[in-house]
Design brief:
Blueprint lengths: L1 E5 L5 H13 L2 E4 L7 E11 L7 H9 L1 E14 L6 H10 L7 E6 L24 H23 L4 H8 L6 H9 L7 E3 L8 H5 L5 E3 L3 E3 L9 H5 L5 E3 L16 H5 L3
Parallel strand pairs: 1-2, 1-3, 3-4, 4-5
Antiparallel strand pairs: 6-9, 7-8
Helix pairs in contact: 1-4
The chain binds flavin mononucleotide (FMN) and iron/sulfur cluster (2 copies).
One iron/sulfur cluster binds next to helix 8.
């Protein structure tokens, strides 16, 4: 038995999950839909990096899960190039459940947060190069190669992370630890502009069920999963956040649809 549980706001992690599942004969399940947390056999956890760490729903999934019948446990993150060392944070919370991670893999993909949660002084950094067709095609090529390599390691039940940790070679930095501490603190305040059509797509994709659309979207509760699905799937780019208001593009993995994102709930 091999099950791959995933969480994905804009399709990067979903794409990686679906492709890995084909190559490793795993069943794919969204973390948010899971009702029975007694995990069994080989288990993979696939998710995006959020602020050098894990999205809240991934932590919740781990906290609720029973790992006593898991024979091989690996994680795969997708990120935009500055992942930090989330595998150590993940391993720390697994250790509270008497489990450790056997292996960890990561895939660099396109950023789905053009400056959304960063403080203003970081806005001067060039994080926000336009997401061009060439950039997306290049990412797809690199992701395909990474998926093949990761599938090979999963099929061979590699334990590189576990071994390096035991040897003491892989350690998080103080900066990583600091980011893990503050990660829950930023509040995401979205705004909508006059170009909203009232189509309801943002409500449909909102994984935290935080949005209700009457004529316009209202963010009706504080809890947000920071998935950026609302921001990125709006067909009018009518949703803006913090310092990012320009209508110069949004991103989701090209072949993953809003229906697939919404079906995680
Ligand atoms: C709230 C938030 C924080 C993020 N923080 C990081 C980060 O610290 N490092 C990084 O490399 N990418 C970061 N990203 C980028 C995503 O990890 C990346 O785009 C990911 O592939 C998105 O996956 P998804 O489409 O499955 O949601 C962040 C994205 C979001 C939404
Ligand atoms: S997806 Fe965009 S256009 Fe549709 S209701 Fe939401 S904000 Fe308005
Ligand atoms: S409000 Fe937006 S970012 Fe927050 S959970 Fe809903 S879709 Fe995701």
């Amino acid at each position: 038995m091999h099950t791959l549980y995933y969480f994905s706001g804009t399709g990067n992690s979903m794409h990686v999950s679906l492709e890995l599942a084909k190559r490793t004969k795993a069943e794919v399940k969204p973390m948010l839909k899971e009702k029975d947390f007694r995990l069994e056999g080989d288990v993979g956890l696939v998710f995006p990096i959020h602020m050098n760490s894990l999205p809240k729903p991934v932590e919740t999934f781990i906290e609720k899960s029973d790992f006593s019948k898991v024979t091989y446990l690996y994680a795969v993150s997708t990120h935009c190039g500055i992942p930090g060392k989330p595998e150590h944070y993940l391993n720390d919370i697994l250790m509270k459940k008497n489990r450790t991670l056997d292996d960890y893999h990561s895939v660099k993909m396109i950023n789905n947060t053009p400056k959304g949660v960063a403080p203003k002084f970081l806005m001067r950094m060039n994080w926000e190069e336009d997401i061009t067709k060439e950039k997306v095609e290049d990412m797809i090529r690199c992701t395909d190669v990474a998926i093949e390599e990761i599938a090979y390691r999963i099929n061979n039940q590699s334990t590189d992370f576990k071994e390096e940790r035991i040897r003491g070679n892989a350690k998080p930095s103080l900066m990583n630890k600091l980011l893990w501490k503050i990660k829950g603190s930023p509040k995401l305040e979205f705004k909508v502009d006059h170009s909203c059509l009232g189509c309801g797509l943002c409500e449909k994709v909102c994984l935290a069920q935080r949005i209700k659309v009457d004529k316009n979207p209202q963010w009706i509760k504080e809890e947000c999963y920071y998935c950026y699905a609302c921001f990125n799937f709006c067909p009018e780019q009518a949703i803006s956040v913090k310092h990012y208001e320009k209508k110069n593009g949004r991103y989701h993995y090209p072949s993953i649809t809003s229906e697939q994102i919404a079906n995680q709930k």
